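Notebook entry, structure prediction.
Reason for the run: the old model in the group folder had no record of what sequence produced it. Starting over properly, with the input documented here first.
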Amino acid sequence: MGIYDFQAKNMLGEDVSLSQYQGKVLLIVNTATGCGFTPQYEGLQALYEKYKDQGFEILDFPCNQFGNQAPGTDNEIVTFCKGRFGVTFPQFSKIEVNGAGEHPLYTWLKSQKGGVLGSKIKWNFTKFLVDRNGKVVGRFAPTETPEKLDKEVAALL
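New structure, fully documented this time:
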């Protein structure tokens, strides 16, 4: 099983196959709209604008598991992100990233790059970097800003 075998629901509730991102560099992020790290949306959008024409995608997975910091509906989350940060990268329907209800994509991502706490996602804005071949090449803590990932993204492009 690889990253391109997974599906996730977009903000309209439609199934999206991640195979449509084959051949692209991906940054997969679990986000929240009411978190101290929420301003990272600005950096994510800047990184996306800088590299999207070179085959770079950011996949945003809102998650309400950490401090109830993404309580809104999918529509409210999209409206907030577009209005406040001008987000244009793909946003998916809210998911869980830990526990019994975690999305299978996150089970797989964590199996590829465990991180300091083993496989558990520590908080909002944990980031996974995936190369053009679908290999997870990096996992970054919430404190690692999108700007700090610029060199890693550029090297993969």
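Summary: The longest helix spans residues 40-51.
The old model has been moved to the deprecated folder.
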